[in-house]
Amino acid sequence: MTLILALETSCDDTCAAVVSADGELRSNVISSQGVHDAFGGVVPEIASRHHLELANAVVDDALRRADATLDDVGLVAVTQGPGLVGALLVGVATAKAIAAARGLPLAPVDHLQGHIAANFLRIGADSGAGGIMAPPFVCLLASGGHTLLARVEQYDGFSVLGRTLDDAAGEAFDKGARLLGLPFPGGPALERLARDGDPHAFAFPIARNLDGLDFSFAGVKTSLLYRVRDLGPQDAAAHAADLAASFQHAIVEALALRCEQALEQTGLRRLAIGGGVAANGPLRTRLEQLAVTVGIPPRELCTDNAAMIASAARFVDAQPFPAYLSLDAYASGERALA
Ligand code: KG4
Ligand code: ZN
């Protein structure tokens, strides 16, 4: 049996996973550091140090849960970028060490390609040989660092149809949550608060007049800031659930409208989603209502995880030992096709 062992340490989650050579998910371990909340955001140096402490234990756990040992591993994969470079380097160094000790090849994986490849995973008996969704499809990637629409025609690459001109959707959720006094990361907390609110109580702007398929979330965030200020602390607290629901509604609509446009423009009738924001319940429901085939990975495969990195590694040219010993991480950019 040949397995792929993958590591993902691009931000504040220390992740390891085991996936079979044909894309079946065997284990997916995510250790959320939970130490950044006090700072209201991820502190890169603290993230790196925690990755260093957690990496070996997380790898051991992933192997144990897959009922495997390093003897069963034929390929090691790791997120090479984009992300926090110090955090990435811990994953890259750990992956190199494991692979080199065993003389195994190493597959460097782009984080965004990983989010797309979450859709190629086969999970249990329910998904067929193609995984959750096979190309061609349009993919909405919305996370804390990125928001883009990708055209996915093949397993090993994508082209960018549109991207955010300012904040990422997850960043907008995080900043909005902060304005409402919610803890970091803001997305899940804001979604919870919004459950008790009216999404039509306040009208927040949805940027529509942009060129092509780009997004903008700076306006909606500023609009929330002014609304909270105008209401004053007491009224803002009294209307917190309505503010959260209306703010979430504006972001979900902005994302859904662009997805609809992208499907129209490409003529594709299949939509997949990825990135942390894809865990958002109202977004998932809204997209499921589009009259197309929608592929939505389970929540734990939408937020950062190593299973998606292992999945992408199946379609990457792996480097043989010792070529990868000089492999470096990259902080920004994406390895898109166009
Ligand atoms: O993909 P991800 O785990 O990490 C990055 O690569 O950024 O995405 C994290 C982002 C955060 O901004 C977080 O607030 C957002 O995804 N997020 C959500 C939800 N869960 C996570 N946003 C809205 N609703 C959620 N349920
Ligand atoms: Zn991500």
How are the elements arranged and paired?
Layout: E1 3-8, E2 13-20, E3 25-32, H1 44-65, E4 73-81, H2 85-102, E5 106-110, H3 111-117, E6 137-142, E7 147-154, E8 157-163, H4 169-179, H5 186-194, H6 218-238, H7 240-266, E9 270-274, H8 281-288, E10 293-295, H9 299-302, H10 307-313
Parallel strand pairs: 1-4, 4-5, 6-9, 9-10
Antiparallel strand pairs: 1-2, 2-3, 6-7, 7-8
Helix pairs in contact: 1-2, 3-10, 4-5, 4-6, 4-7, 5-7, 6-7, 7-8
C-alpha-based Rg, rounded: 20 Å
Largest sheet: 5 strands, mixed
Q: In which range does the helix fraction lie?
A: 25-40%
Q: Based on helices, strands and strand pairing, what is the structural class?
A: alpha/beta
CATH level-4 homologous superfamily of the largest domain: ATPase, nucleotide binding domain
Annotation, overall tally of beta strands: 10
* Helix run count: 10
SSE sequence, one letter per element: EEEHEHEHEEEHHHHEHEHH
CA distance, first residue to last residue? 36 Å
Instruction: Please identify the top-level CATH class of the largest domain.
Output: Alpha Beta
General shape: globular
Percent of residues in beta strands: 15-25%
Strand ordering within the main sheet: 3-2-1-4-5
The distinct ligands, each listed once, are: 5'-O-[(R)-(carboxyoxy)(hydroxy)phosphoryl]adenosine, zinc ion
The number of domains is 2
Average pLDDT over all residues: 92
In the CATH hierarchy, what is the architecture of the largest domain at level 2? 2-Layer Sandwich
Low-confidence stretches: none
Description:
It contains 10 helices and 10 strands. By secondary structure, the protein is of the alpha/beta class. The protein folds into 2 domains: 3-132 and 301-337, ATPase, nucleotide binding domain (Nucleotidyltransferase, domain 5, 2-Layer Sandwich), CATH 3.30.420; 137-296, 2-Layer Sandwich (Nucleotidyltransferase, domain 5), CATH 3.30.420. The strands form 2 sheets. A 5-stranded mixed β-sheet has the order 3-2-1-4-5, with helices on both faces. It has a 5-stranded mixed β-sheet with strand order 8-7-6-9-10, with helices on both faces. β2 (13-20) and β3 (25-32) form a beta hairpin. The longest helix is centred in the C-terminal third of the chain and has 27 residues, at 240-266. The radius of gyration is 20 Å and the shape is globular. The model has no long low-confidence stretch (mean pLDDT 92). The structure holds 5'-O-[(R)-(carboxyoxy)(hydroxy)phosphoryl]adenosine and zinc ion. Residues 111, 115, 143, 275, 304 line the site of zinc ion (ZN).
